[in-house]
Amino acid sequence: MTGSSRRWYDNDPILKEALELLRLQTDDKKNAAADFIISLQEQVAQDVIERIYEITQQFAGKGNRWYDADPVMLKAVELLRAAPPKTQRVAALKLLLAMENNNLDALDKNIDE
């Protein structure tokens, strides 16, 4: 872990690239990606999901992060952060491939662990 990493996803190059590319997508593509990421709820404990909703209410539209302005994207990114590392990585790889193929609408929501 380097001292220069400021964001939770900076330590995983795949997660970092996926989220940085996602930030640059159109709103429609971001919405498709958010739907995919939100499908990770099954991988996250219920108490964590409740905390995510608290974070969403606290930061939606108020934070400085690129995803804070959109409550759905905020929820999606917080869910991704709370997911197990293997799930994060699989989701990030799927997002990268979908963005590379310009096909976010057809994301396979199945995360095989």
Q: How many angstroms does the end-to-end distance come to? A: 25 Å
Class from secondary-structure proportions: mainly alpha
Order of helices and strands: HHHHH
- Got a strand count? 0
Average pLDDT figure: 85
Specify the biggest β-sheet.
none
DSSP summary: helix tally: 5
- Unreliable stretches (pLDDT < 50, length at least 5) are none
Identify the quaternary structure here.
single chain
Overall geometry comes to: globular
| Residues in helix, % | 55-70%
Residue share in β-strands: under 5%
Specify Rg, calculated over alpha carbons. Answer: 13 Å
In short:
The chain has 113 residues and is an all-alpha fold. It has helices spanning 13-23, 27-38, 46-59, 71-82, 85-100.
Structure, described:
This protein is an all-alpha fold and 113 residues long. Helix content is 58%, strand content 0%. It is built from 5 helices and no strands. The chain has helices spanning 13-23, 27-38, 46-59, 71-82, 85-100. Helix 1 (13-23) packs across helix 5, helix 2 crosses helix 4 (71-82) and helix 3 packs antiparallel against helix 4. The relative contact order is 0.20. The model has no long low-confidence stretch (mean pLDDT 85).
Topology at a glance:
Elements (H helix, E strand, L loop, with lengths): L12 H11 L3 H12 L7 H14 L11 H12 L2 H16 L13
Helix pairs in contact: 1-5, 2-4, 3-4
